[in-house]
Amino acid sequence: MIASNTQPDQLAFDYTMVGEPVWNRIEFARDVLPLEDNFLLHAGPPFEDEPPTRPILNSACVAAVYDGLASDLDTAEKMILNGDIKLFPAQDFNVVTPLAAVVSPSMPLQAIYDAHRGLVRTFSPINGGNAPAARLGLKSMKVVEHLKWLNSEFAETLASGLAEGISLIPIASESLTRGDDCHGRTAQATRILIDELLDRSPAESINAKCLEFFSNCPSLFLNLWMAASKCMLILGENVPNSSLVTTAGGNGSKVGIKLSSYPGKWITTDAKPPKGPFDVDVSQTRALGAIGDSALVDIYGLGAMVIHLDQAIHQKMTPFLPPDFHHIRENLLASEHIGFQGLGIKLGITAQRVVELKKCPVVSLGIIDKEGLEGRLGGGIYDMPLSLFEKALKQMESNENEE
Fold this sequence. Notes:
globular, four-stranded antiparallel sheet, alpha+beta
């Protein structure tokens, strides 16, 4: 039984259990989403009475120039700040995007569908790899140029290897046995995925540049798994009185979640930065608050919640994990998923159980420069605040009383 022992939470989790996410297409955002030409999509909850954080603003400028909405990056920034170009949360459109990456209408997206319910579809941009990627929040024409190549030549290469589609749970499950956590580390899953794509692709369709990118992009699987997690969690939405967490993300200023019972309502609080070692020599004060939709992976139960599967990373991050992390992992998560049987892991988090235990899920997140100059500073652990789940639970109970 699910940890909280409430029937609505059990039902919502059971719905997610039957999900079978399959990557079967690459489609342009404007063809599959209700987007106006001047709409851009970012990670986490909406920016309401505040400007976008600098890294997201930078990536929005890049996306605007990429889409031809502005002639240059500075003009794009003025248009965004004036409201001529509008920003919206990606997850409100069933899109997930990593860190500061911003999606524009003409970008190709990786399309995931649930094999049991074909109408449930989610999307993610292609992972930018170790090049000047959009997720790093840099205002640079080098990022624009990389996007142009990534979203044309490389996107076509990916599409050529999809054939009838690729089921993602088997890849994730196998990668966990090899030490991946499906968030902070996806090297094994990416290797399995690339082998599958290469095996299906006509040899002449993959040039040297694409092959080199494959070999230097250990996180290629991550964006796909983010969308797969979203696909499964959507199945658990709209269960009355359920506190199953079905959405999570940060925009650098606010972090937010949604519950199954009210999937249209973001519950937010201020986003503190993740804690972890820096890879560059800058002040710790340069760390941006929690950012990215990849928090979904950990809320689903993987990522930092199974960090113990990789002893090297576990040891590196132990100073930043809660001292009772093992207790949290064992008692906070709900139940097993049939696709991950035999791995000794549980999935699913409810606000009810978080508040009962007064223990919060931990999330592995990249740490990026809040000034938008250095990009990625390192990787760390973000402790989701208890107050966020208390606020969500109170909101749910208040809505129940009004009905």
